[in-house]
Amino acid sequence: MAATVAQIEGLPPSVVASDPKVAKADWQLDWRSPCHNAVCTLTELQQHLPAPLSPLAEDFIDVATAVYLTDIAVPRGRNERWVRDIEVLLAVRRVDFWESVGGQLLRLVQTLTGDNFRFTFYPRAQRADSNKSPQDESCTDDSPDCVCLLSGGLDSLAGAVMLLRAGRRPHLVMHYSGNPTVRAAQDYVQQLLAGNWSERSRFSGVHIAPDLRRPEALPYPEPDQREASRRVRSLLYMTLAAVAATAAGLAEVYLGENGVLTAALPLTVARSGSLSTRSTHPAVINLFNGLCEQAGWDCRVQNPFLYQTKAEVIRDILRPALSPLDIQKTASCWMTGRGNRQCGGCIPCLLRRIAMLAAGLPDEAYMMDLLGDPLPHSGTDAFTNLVDLLNHTATVLGKSDEELLEEYPRLLDLAAAGVSVTEVIATLRRHATEVHDVITTHFPAPAALLEVL
Q1: pTM
Q2: Interatomic CA distance for residues 67 and 349, integer angstroms
Q3: pLDDT tens-digit map of 109-154
Q4: CB pairs under 8 A, 24+ apart, for 404-409?
Q5: Top-level CATH class of 146-214+223-302?
């Protein structure tokens, strides 16, 4: 798929009308004018900051917003058309900065998506009403001392709990989802943390999404024509957190994700490339931190669970502080919102269900009982997910470290990002042992499959 997407919000009308690349773009993005086809609501975030956002910080948010909306607007094809060729035209306040770091931004987005992106930067028109939301100018002993991303998922909840139980005062930044199931999980998590640690937790929600509710809105793909993979969402999350940290003079930004998903090893060769998400991969975080460094910002994003399995996160962080029901109120499913509960057949659902049982929590109800009765789902993507997970488990348990490096050369990407490959392999082995033990203890049918792999 090839497409050109232009962020016309911020461009002078003369440029929109006369520049052929802008005028003939496949999609035009706007989130501030009366004809906007997206929303970017920062009021809650800005009100919790002690200083207005700098022009460069506003640029970071606009660039991340435009790339996020572009990722949604351009659907992938299948097979050889999976990789997209996308040019993004961006209106920025600091053209000099973005042209100097354009190569770093390109590597970051391409690492996240596996697609071929190109960026062109245009000088932005001045806007008199920029960033006029009131700020929290108080700086007291209760002011936040770090920033933590909160998604509504299990691992991000653990990140917040870890900080709060350690006596920290995190500014919890959330990108509000338009998915009602995910939003319900986000609301529950926020209420849960506020109820337990109200004196040390501060929340800021940001709403950034397509918006086609008005007849005058610019064209944008309808929901059933959009890309569902959302590979760029972590760039948006990290940007919001880094901007909040910089405005408050904070250095620590926490993004919690278990080490198995962070390593992002493809379960099979067929899942290589962008078929395996790298949203929290250390290479991605390093590239983003490099952009922050180039901007002169002191904040750095870090993942506290890099060397922990999901079961260990549940057992060591969440179980001592929260009830099983509280933990189960989080959302992990890639298909969330398409039914009345989590699907049970996607990779995150399988990993979540196994991790819950490995950590001693009661089993959850899913739309399909893939682990309990897999054969009725034979031939489906869900059954393929299960077989691939079992194959991966057998491979990790059956090979030496040297053989695993040959099997998964992408482990070397972790070394290049300053991560201990030895520790990552040890984490993968503990996870594979958890999968093996849960499957053989609770689920006879997949246990039989595991024995023949």
Answers
A1: 0.93
A2: 28
A3: 999 999 999 999 999 987 654 445 555 555 555 799 999 999 999 9
A4: 404/428, 408/265, 408/266
A5: alpha beta
